Amino acid sequence: MTLSFKTCSSSSSSHSPCSNRSTPKSFSGDDSQFFHQKSYRAHTTTLFFILVSLSFFGFFSLYCSPNAISRAALFATTRQAKSGIVNYVINAQDSSHHQSIRRIRAEAVLWPGWEILVIVSPEEKVMPPLPGEDYTCFYPNGEKSTARFTAVLPFTNRTAFRCSLPGIYRHHHPIPTPILASSKSFQISPESRWPDLPLWNFVVFEAISTENDVVLFVKGPNRGLGSNKPPESFRCVFGEESDSAIRTAVTSSVQEVFRCPFPNETIDNPVKIYLETVATNKEATKTVPSVAYFSPKRRLSESREKSLLCATTMVYNVAKYLREWVMYHATIGIQRFIIYDNGSDDELNDVVELLRSERYDVTKVLWIWPKTQEAGFSHAAMYGKDSCTWMMYLDVDEFLFSPAWDKQSKPSDQMIKSLLPSDQSMIGQVSFKSLEFGPSNQTEHPRGGVTQGYTCRREEEQRHKSIVRLSAVEHSLYTAIHHFGLKGEYEWRVADTEEGVVNHYKYQAWPEFKAKFRRRVSAYVVDWTRVSNPKSRDRTPGLGFRPIEPKGWAQQFCEVRDLRLKRLTKKWFGYSEENGYRMAWQR
Ligand SMILES: *[C@@H]1O[C@H](CO)[C@@H](O)[C@H](O)[C@H]1NC(C)=O
Ligand SMILES: *[C@@H]1O[C@H](CO)[C@@H](O)[C@H](O)[C@H]1NC(C)=O
Ligand SMILES: *[C@@H]1O[C@H](CO)[C@@H](O)[C@H](O)[C@H]1NC(C)=O
Ligand SMILES: *[C@@H]1O[C@H](CO)[C@@H](O)[C@H](O)[C@H]1NC(C)=O
């Protein structure tokens, strides 16, 4: 199929208004660079005049801030007039394609790695593409990039794509939001608007409704420890300004979590939800851009009985371990598993399906947001609230057990419950110390699973992991990953290691460890190959920063032989076989 394109620009006299070319790629780099610098300068000048004429210096600091905040609002109108207008004109023989070309309403945000996450708006009902169906991102200068299907987001069922940001826009501020269309060629009308692309460091990325309020997950306004701004400085905005948005007060602002009551007005359809700062005498209102929607009040699941004990975990490509982790913990009393999947591309779905077919209650929640483990944990505390009394937060390489269970010939589903206080107690959270296991001479993933393969550990007890009573969690949903903040009337208990302990199979056989640490699901360590935070406890002692097997890896972190959980699980889950035994989770 040969298409020819015609590119027109009305932006500047020095730029030739129309040029024919065979593909948009032949657009000369220098040419467009010039165009962009020029138009950027034009914006800056316009902005300067707006600022001066308003004598409004509050805006100035805002403009200088690294966040692309309400420059959005200021630029929206000027950009429209100034930016290049591109017409992709399709050859006559291709006119049959015309019908299928369609602009799709979508939200977008710039992600790390110059990727744009483009999320189709709920009213569009775009399904994941079928083979041969193409979606494309179009940019104002005539460039385009393929929109790769990424996921269907949970709760709103919106289809998400990823587009690579063309190089020319990478040093451009603000960056225009591309137009998503359902074909490789597309006619962009002169009226097309190119709103500023929100950046991942300043955006409302997710929202969940509870019984009486809505929880927003927001990157940007609160940054770093102790920098939470007071709730009074924000408001939630339900809907677009043009459709008479409704505002409600923010009741909590901690970390990336903000909460607001529902509006009194009933909202029937999903609407975009924003966070905005309240104007002060120094600064005007600014709106945090958003890709999140408020869905009308969630109805409590009628059919599901409230489980006593649930577990949640955030995973990335750990399907291999999931079966052992679920089967073990289900047997000792976890009734429901909520797995936050950080975009795994391994056989996670198959493992989850298999477990479900075996009647394990496993729910997968896609959580694609980068570096948001705390936010994900807070989300889980709300998501699980109607169905779970207690929530255990453990990673899939962590296994809770009590040394006292050694005496039991059979496991029971009352075992974890026995480690928790009674319903009447005011203990809101119980934490267990963890023990870090080393590779224990293994050079590959042990066939019988981690509980069988890893038996040697470091002596020192490590950070704890917790089981929290969800009704006791502080309104702010504050979490430090290892535990939650509790409402004032509740106490927090740390169990001693005779009662209960977490075996953490942290330093596994080299191929496993390497894969895990490369794409670590941790909010603290940015990148284990980067020497940014070398003192963090998440760092591996003596490992350095390159994924090269350290000498004697298989023997490292081996100070204490600890066979307690191996024996327990072998007794409970092992079946004799000709050449030894086989574990229930082995397939
Ligand atoms: C999303 O899809 C699921 C499964 O198909 C469905 O149960 C749910 O109602 C849908 N949610 C929305 C908001 O459309
Ligand atoms: C909703 O209505 C109540 C009672 O009239 C009022 O006190 C409250 O401020 C209203 N809330 C909002 C968000 O408008
Ligand atoms: C999910 O994985 C990506 C890529 O490995 C990583 O950058 C991101 O931080 C992870 N997300 C969370 C919530 O940790
Ligand atoms: C690892 O192998 C060495 C040498 O064979 C042996 O002495 C040691 O006990 C083994 N350690 C474990 C944890 O199996």
Automatic annotation (TrEMBL):
<protein>
    <recommendedName>
        <fullName>Glycosyltransferase family 92 protein</fullName>
        <ecNumber>2.4.1.-</ecNumber>
    </recommendedName>
</protein>
<dbReference type="Pfam" id="PF01697">
    <property type="entry name" value="Glyco_transf_92"/>
</dbReference>
<dbReference type="GO" id="GO:0016020">
    <property type="term" value="C:membrane"/>
</dbReference>
<dbReference type="GO" id="GO:0016757">
    <property type="term" value="F:glycosyltransferase activity"/>
</dbReference>
<feature type="transmembrane region" description="Helical">
    <location>
        <begin position="45"/>
        <end position="63"/>
    </location>
</feature>
<dbReference type="GO" id="GO:0005737">
    <property type="term" value="C:cytoplasm"/>
</dbReference>
<keyword id="KW-0472">Membrane</keyword>
<keyword id="KW-1133">Transmembrane helix</keyword>
<dbReference type="InterPro" id="IPR008166">
    <property type="entry name" value="Glyco_transf_92"/>
</dbReference>
<feature type="region of interest" description="Disordered">
    <location>
        <begin position="1"/>
        <end position="26"/>
    </location>
</feature>
<keyword id="KW-0812">Transmembrane</keyword>
<comment type="similarity">
    <text>Belongs to the glycosyltransferase 92 family.</text>
</comment>
<keyword id="KW-0808">Transferase</keyword>
<feature type="compositionally biased region" description="Low complexity">
    <location>
        <begin position="9"/>
        <end position="22"/>
    </location>
</feature>
<keyword id="KW-0328">Glycosyltransferase</keyword>
